[in-house]
Amino acid sequence: MMTKTNNSVFTILVAIVVILLILIFAPLLTIWSLNTLFSTLEIPYTMETWAATVIITGVIQSTNLGIKSRKDK
Questions:
Q1: How many structural domains compose the chain?
Q2: Up-side HSE of residue 21: CA atoms within 13 Å toward CB?
Q3: What's the pTM value of the predicted model, to 2 decimals?
Q4: 19 belongs to a structural domain
Q5: 4 in any annotated domain
Q6: pLDDT of 22-53, one tens digit each?
């Protein structure tokens, strides 16, 4: 029988696992989608391209945040 404390710990662990899975597979899905849309790219699925996808996604997101903060002023 799960108590309230055990239930909240289980919920936190599940959330952490889901977040980790998203962080791992989101760049691979980005590479897959680019390869699907632009078949001439033929980007390989390697750690190097995974890391590059993570970096470029971070740059794009930080740029978007900068644009949103300027609009708020």
A1: 1
A2: 6
A3: 0.73
A4: no
A5: no
A6: 999 999 999 999 999 999 999 999 999 999 99
